[in-house]
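WARN retry 2 of 3 for item q-0093 after timeout on previous attempt; input resubmitted unchanged.
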Amino acid sequence: MPDQGEREAIPQAVRFAARHMAVSSRRNVTPAEFMRAIAGKKASDAAQRAVAAFLNEADPAEIADLVACGATSFVRLSGIASRTLPPSHPNRVYLEQLAA
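OK item q-0093 returned
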């Protein structure tokens, strides 16, 4: 269980995204692991799959929240989307436009 300092260091948007995936697809990864995956740091395969699933189904505003809180960038998320989503997927197109 993360201590108080760890919980405070993980932005609310990241905690929300990790919970979103736990509920919608039963991909149970910790917010810390999810944050490592979106930040481009070494993360488990499960966390990387959870991020790909999140990008597949999240609302663009939820995706933008991850960038707004400083946990990642549109460029990094666009790279993940280009590897995991089909070219015509609306979130991939959205991220490619914002990363340009």
